């Protein structure tokens, strides 16, 4: 992977870096970054294990405890971090939750909780990180969306709508900030083996696996490898793209 024209990330920020996809991204990014900051909400032990792995890769690890159900306080925390940290030139906007329910059973509380984390706090991360990058005239952001933004499956209306919003943000931010040497792309994972799927009954999992041409769920490292590519100069002309990584499920 090549980094020469741009230089390795000085400081990468990964929201939701304590587990799953975010943890895999943070550990891989540590091999090319000077510092890697991860946010977590409850998983303090896992977050400190990820921090150890970041240090093993030779990068400085920064842990930020933050509850993204409160976009206002997350914004204040992020402001303080961006002020203290020096240039943050790579952001993986990854933290997200799912509250699956059939359309007629979904509640306003579920809608609000999912949108607070996946949309409002993502927007806060995007706008504050991007403003900071504009000052530096450089930066890259990867939003972790989902195939649920455009694939239709029962129970996923609220989650899918939240990820569709993230897709729209990706295109608009890329359009408006591309000329300022800032690239913003999104990855739309299919089903990836993480705790997010822990509550999915085996029968439902088997049903989805039958719909995946590669007949298996992906691993967090599949997403992290694409994040590494997007961080590198090999992705220099990629901006505003929504990249599916789903074993062919959306084909
Ligand atoms: P996990 O549930 O394994 O991890 C979620 C991460 O987000 C954790 O670090 C968690 O912190 C953090 N987080 C969750 N809620 C909050 C909150 N309210 N405030 C702060 N942090 C929070 O999820 P995945 O790794 O599977 O998913 C990562 C992203 O990928 C999400 O945006 C998800 O929607 C998306 N995605 C996942 C797919 C999958 O199949 N796994 C498929 C498509 C998209 P803590 O550990 O402290 O709770």
Tally of DSSP helical segments = 7
| Residue share in helix | 40-55%
- Can you tell me the CATH topology? Rossmann fold
CATH homology superfamily name: NAD(P)-binding Rossmann-like Domain
User: What structural class do helix, strand and pairing data support?
Assistant: alpha/beta
For the biggest β-sheet, the strand order reads 3-2-1-4-5-6-7
Task: Please state the overall shape, judged from the principal axes of the Cα atoms.
Answer: globular
Number of domains: 1
The CATH architecture would be 3-Layer(aba) Sandwich
Secondary-structure element pattern, one letter each: EHEHEHEHEHEHHE
Compute the CA-based radius of gyration.
17 Å
Number of strands: 7
Features:
single chain, 251 residues, alpha/beta, 7-stranded parallel β-sheet, 7 helices, 44% helix, binds NADPH dihydro-nicotinamide-adenine-dinucleotide phosphate, oxidoreductase, 3-oxoacyl-ACP reductase FabG
Structure report:
Belongs to the short-chain dehydrogenases/reductases (SDR) family. Keywords: Oxidoreductase. InterPro entries: KR_dom, NAD(P)-bd_dom_sf, Sc_DH/Rdtase_CS, SDR, SDR_fam. GO terms for molecular function: oxidoreductase activity. This is 3-oxoacyl-ACP reductase FabG. By secondary structure, the chain is of the alpha/beta class. The protein has one domain: NAD(P)-binding Rossmann-like Domain (Rossmann fold). It is 44% helix and 15% strand. The protein is built from seven helices and seven strands, in the order βαβαβαβαβαβααβ. It has a seven-stranded parallel β-sheet, with helices on both faces. Strand 5, helix 5 and strand 6 form a beta-alpha-beta unit. Helix 1 crosses helix 7 and helix 4 runs parallel beside helix 5. The longest helix is centred in the middle third of the chain and has 29 residues. The site of NADPH dihydro-nicotinamide-adenine-dinucleotide phosphate has 30 residues, from helix 1.
